[in-house]
Amino acid sequence: MLCMSINAKYRLLQALNCMMFSAGHSYLSYYLLEQGFKTSTIGIIIATAGILSSLAQPYLGRLADRNPNIGWKQILAALAITCEAAILAVIFSPSPMVSAIFYGLEIALINCMVPMVNAACFYYNRMGTPVDFGIARGTGSAAYALTSLALGRITAMEGPHPVPIIGAIVMGITIICINSLPYNPADDKVVFHEKQDSGKKDSIFDFAARYKAFMIMILAILLVFSFQNMYSNYLIQILGDLGGSSADLGKALFIAAVFELPMMLISGKILKRMESHKLIVFGVAAYVIRAMMMYLAGNLNALFFSMTLQMFSFTIVTFSSVHYADVMMRKEDKVTGQALATFASSGASVIGSLTGGFICDAYGTKNMLLAGTALCALALVAALISYNMTEKKARPL
After folding, report:
1. Residue 383: which domain range?
2. What does the pLDDT read at residue 86?
3. Which of 171, 192, 211, 371 could form a disulfide with 84 if both were Cys (CB 3.0 to 4.6 A apart)?
4. What are 126-149's pLDDT values in tens digits?
């Protein structure tokens, strides 16, 4: 790994991160269902993980931005090591309840790693080493697709037990990859003489007041990702109602990731032609259509077809929000911006898992998808409001 270029290492980091999302997030519901947990209980576990990561992400972002001795690499390494310990606890836990608690901690830590992984890309670009986020994230999509397909086949034959074992292997390689990345915290800091002279400490509330349009767009992303988490966390139940199995779960995730890949690979070219806030509005509108298609799906093939809209919904919102958080921020706020963009995802896991689990248990998957469609419609309204505010006001320097 020492002989690899920074670009190659960063692509590997993105691939490993996406593989963890497959083994962690995407198969969590299946794993816990097989351990005997109810859907609503699984929702509480996922929501708790989302709350923990939502609280931690803005703090970790401010820590990386403002502490002269700590940067994204140190934080990312600490999170990865702790996550590996949590996965090992899942594997060797004495009871399903203990396993579920540590699985929830694993999910929270994976969520917290995302803004640091994204911040690494922009750090290297600022330091004069061009790193194409789209190609790196596209590599991640390919890795996610292959991992999901492989896990679908493995779990169909062996059951849920290989899921955390594969996660432990992936996270171990991730730790090695992080440690091999070059980083100097002194290159990534800003001196804040004016703020220090004023005697005021810049808080997250000051940040929100400074970037109103950004915060409203984060709300829109939060809502569509709530739907994303709602259907992905309970996709095994949706497939089950249509006659599917864990093998079909792997197939559905594979289809989504395959259609995500080409859009990720050309994301850099797309961002040169269209501004990121406009792309987010387009992606949110695609989410509305996708949610309606999933609600109306009457068989497995119809549901599989709806997964192809991953390329216009999740993919566009994902790469656009990362770029949006970078271009809208002043230099001293860039990691915080990435942390809040990722906060939308982890906060969405709270909304999506709790509401999805409750509705799924009480009223079935169809009504859960109907609620998801309503969330996407509200997100489109918020995105349009933010878009209008951005068009009327110049971006900060």
Report:
1. 6-181+204-392
2. 96
3. 171
4. 888 888 888 898 899 899 989 999
Of all residues in the chain, the percent with pLDDT exceeding 70 is: 91
Over the stretch 50-90, which tens digit does the pLDDT of each residue have?
888 888 877 887 777 777 678 889 999 999 999 999 999 99
Question: Which residues fall within 8 angstroms of residue 301, CB to CB, at 6 or more apart?
Answer: none
Q: Which of 342, 354, 341, 343 is nearest to 48 (CA)?
A: 354
* Residues 331, 204: Cα–Cα separation, whole Å: 15
Q: Say how far apart CA 76 and CA 339 lie, in whole Å.
A: 13
Contacts of 128 (CB under 8 A, 6+ apart): none
Hey, how many other C-beta atoms are within 10 angstroms of the C-beta on 391?
Answer: 11
- Cα–Cα distance for residue pair 6/143, rounded to 1 Å: 19
The residue to which tokens 């929501």 are assigned: 47
Tens of pLDDT, residues 16-52: 999 999 888 888 888 998 888 888 888 888 889 888 8
**Residue 59 domain-assigned (yes or no):** yes
Number of structural domains (the chain) is 1
Rounded CA-CA distance 360/387 in Å is 33
CATH code assigned at 122: 1.20.1250.20
Q: Would you say residue 144 lies in a domain?
A: yes
Residue 358 lies in a domain: yes
Residue 310 DSSP one-character state = G
CA distance 164 to 169: 9
DSSP 181: S
DSSP state of 25: I
Q: Any idea what the Cα angle at residue 324 is, between residues 234 and 289, rounded to 5°?
A: 40
250 located within any domain: yes
Q: How far is CA 162 from CA 46, 110, 151, 275, 338, in A?
A: 20, 19, 8, 43, 33
Q: Are 382 and 217 in contact (CB under 8 A)?
A: yes
